[in-house]
Amino acid sequence: MIEDLLVGITLAFTIPVLASSYYSLILMISSFMYPQAKDSGQVLDGFPPVSIIIAIFNERFVVSKSLDALKNLDYPKNRLQVIVADDSTDETRQIIDQKVLELQSAGLSTVVSRRESREGFKSGALNQAAKMVSGEYVLLLDADSIVTPNVLTRGLRRFQDESGLGFVSYRVGHYNREQSLITRLFALSLDLGDTLNKMGAHAIGSPFSFQGGYTLISSEILRGVGYWSADSIVDDADLSCKVYASGKKGTYLSDVRIFGEDLQTLETWKKQAARVSQGWAKCLSDHWRTILRTPHMSRWRRAALLLFLFAPFASLSWLVVSFTSATAVVLHISTASNSIFSNPWYVTLVSLPISSFFIAAAQSMRVQSILTKRNLLLIPVLSYTGCCMFTASSVGFLRGLRGEAGFFFRTPKTGGNLPSDTDYFRALTLDKLVILEFILSIIAIVLSAFMFINGVWFLGLSLLGFGLLTLKSLGLSRLLRLNLHTLNMLPETIRSVLT
Description:
CATH topology of the largest domain: Spore Coat Polysaccharide Biosynthesis Protein SpsA, Chain A
Largest sheet: 8 strands, mixed
Order of helices and strands: HEHEHEHEEHEHEHHEHHHHHHHHHHHHH
CATH architecture of the largest domain: Alpha-Beta Complex
């Protein structure tokens, strides 16, 4: 009876993930059909006015380079409008004010949008800035986005060549890719996303989410969908859903890049992954009815969009299925031979979609001409790196499904410099999530030992990788140093009481 219940739980949590995983397999195969030449080479029918919105919050290390790059756009300056959506509370404000004067002197019409509060976080800042838009198209940039000269000309030619187009998405470039192992892994994860979710989706006409700092969108479409949802912490995915539900589509330019800064630590990477999971789940909760009912999308495209938003459920599925199966063996509720992870059919069914991950990662390197042995070694490392984000992503996903908007975690940018502990890890605290991650990681390591003893190797390796990498991602040594630093700053009397 109990074994039947365990099988039922496993299937209930596995089947939705398999659907999403095999859709990724389809996208991987489709990525090889992405057209080699996306540029018609036709001359633009004039130069439509373009507004550039760059969202900034306390980004003193990167904002200068991003604003300076706008001067190099291969586009008439008198047809451009720059809007700086600045929510900064530090010296970034003074840097922006100086750069605005420089852009104006260079012939670029530039204005600053500032607010008294951060209500709605980035979405709120973008909504206020949108009131100033005068262009027919809007280029959306982040504080660290460094544009290449042909971004606008290439993007506008796509609008000219494709009817019914709502937005153009560009490939994510990396200006600090080679800084460390973590930046190389993070860059590969973004490349992988571009290959699967953009190249593959574009090749078969499937919907995908653009990224806020790498997108050119029609002003008319932006107004038509009501701009950004005020309570969204994933402004790009939320707006993408609204664009597709309105009957418009997106296109992807793999050979046109906008460069950004790659994350430098597992801790901040994990926090970003948790925010995305919560945001996508909130987006799913908010828009699933609209997506299912819209007459502007075919059934399979609606299903594809829902599967995309449902992807973070995979983390929760892995936690439930793995811990339940391992605990059942340890407590002798189920024998090792009867464990679903000892079933070769189940292992094959679950493992097969992983091939799409490895092949798509190699494909993303090939299209960028960086397919080397050194880079290929990153693929298995990346496959394990995601394990440390399962707990945070699962918690975020559940919160998002409950409709919780959550907090917009701002990934710190350093301009390619190595961060100091005090600047970079100030947001890391011993909160409930960190405690939960620590407990689960220890349990996973203990369970993995039992799995090895009982010969359930596939599950044992998975649990061990999860446990070790989750511990690594907690940054416990840095947290300890920060806490000791704070302790040393306390008055002697208070310190003596605490110790």
